[in-house]
User: Which sequence fits this backbone?
């Protein structure tokens, strides 16, 4: 049984969140033209698929930095807006910029990775590894960069330096597709400086809103997160939240959570164009993006202006991030990143690919591959990385409470 003081404290905290979140909501509209322009530029042939370390890499980072400068953001580091890094055989850039309050203490970080898969091919992470073709990456993750830029701009436009309680940091991460390298280096740098943010908001694949479903991860990483999210879920936005508590996941927020920072991860459910040449800007839902940007901006504003303080807490999921795996084969399955049970859940099974031909269906949970237990997405990826083209494997799945064995020709 909860003590009386704990119950009272919880009620007071929830009431405070509701008051702060409904105080002076911003009325500035999202710039749909800006959202579309950024997505189309980043996913254009000029940037050749935005592969980390490519000859276009610095030009991409410069484009993002120059646009943020036009919004009134300044370099976070003294050496400039572009923060060069190298890890193992990967060299790329982080774009890190800030809008500082006059009397602000601490910060919030709104970020997204800007890199993608280049021309694809074996080992690239493409779900069509046998095809060398331009991968535009409009949803993954030109949409996230565009949304993060617009949210940061709106935050800045809807207040004054004097009213800011926290600084607004914008970050565009390089080399996420190589293993969240850029974000890990930035988190490590900020931790050594004693300047980690109070909250990290990550936007990754927010351009394909369908059936109004918005996935929100990290809801268990700080106290009163559910109250904060609920208070800003304006009915006019027509968003339906699918929430998960874990601070871990296959994107940049994970590295900040590992450093003890509360996180929120916004994304849309997976689609069949994920990591293929067909992730193009003409398929982006810009009205849906605008609703997400409005929502993220309102949540961020509760922290930087209204004074909501995210208080970190540890979630039950203690998985570490996997090393980058190079795949020789693909089953043609897009993960359900919100699944939190035992095994690997197939969010979308791509028609005509090996898993589909073998009879796998959306929502199937993979428990074993050739008798090797699949505990989670990381162990699934590790097993997949050791498979060869032409190999026949046996997959044990759970479907509607029944165990089913499938034979898959890779």
Assistant:
């Amino acid at each position: 049984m909860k003590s009386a003081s704990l119950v009272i404290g919880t009620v007071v905290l929830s009431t405070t969140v509701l008051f702060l979140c409904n105080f002076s909501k911003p009325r500035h509209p999202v710039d749909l033209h800006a959202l579309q322009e950024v997505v189309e530029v980043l996913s254009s042939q000029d940037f050749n698929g935005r592969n980390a370390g490519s000859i276009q890499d610095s030009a991409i980072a410069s484009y993002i930095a120059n646009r943020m400068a036009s919004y009134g953001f300044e370099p976070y580091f003294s050496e400039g807006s572009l923060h060069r890094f190298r890890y193992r055989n990967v060299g790329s850039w982080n774009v890190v910029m800030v809008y500082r309050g006059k009397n602000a203490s601490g910060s919030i970080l709104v970020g997204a990775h800007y890199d993608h898969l280049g021309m694809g091919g074996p080992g690239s992470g493409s779900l069509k590894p046998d095809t060398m073709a331009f991968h535009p990456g409009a949803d993954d993750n030109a949409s996230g960069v565009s949304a993060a830029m617009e949210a940061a701009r709106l935050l800045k436009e809807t207040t004054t330096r004097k009213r800011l309680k926290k600084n607004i940091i914008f970050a565009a991460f390089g080399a996420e597709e190589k293993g969240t390298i850029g974000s890990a280096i930035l988190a490590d740098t900020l931790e050594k400086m004693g300047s980690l943010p109070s909250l990290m908001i990550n936007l990754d694949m927010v351009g394909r809103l369908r059936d109004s479903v918005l996935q929100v991860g990290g809801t268990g990483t700080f106290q009163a997160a559910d109250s904060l999210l609920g208070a800003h879920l304006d009915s006019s936005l027509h968003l339906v939240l699918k929430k998960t508590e874990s601070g871990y996941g296959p994107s940049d927020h994970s590295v900040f959570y590992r450093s003890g920072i509360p996180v929120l991860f916004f994304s849309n459910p997976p689609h069949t164009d994920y990591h293929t040449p067909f992730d193009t800007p003409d398929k982006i839902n810009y009205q849906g993006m605008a609703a997400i940007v409005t929502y993220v901006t309102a949540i961020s504003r509760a922290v930087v202006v209204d004074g909501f303080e995210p208080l970190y807490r540890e979630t039950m999921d203690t998985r570490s991030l996997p090393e980058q795996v190079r795949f020789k084969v693909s089953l043609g399955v897009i993960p359900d990143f919100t699944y939190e049970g035992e095994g690997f859940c197939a969010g979308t099974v791509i028609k005509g690919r090996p898993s589909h031909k073998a009879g796998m269906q959306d929502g199937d949970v993979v428990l074993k591959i050739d008798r090797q237990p699949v505990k989670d997405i990381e162990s699934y990826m590790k097993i997949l990385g050791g498979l060869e083209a032409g190999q026949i494997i046996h997959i044990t799945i759970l479907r509607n409470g029944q165990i089913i064995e499938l034979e898959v020709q890779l």
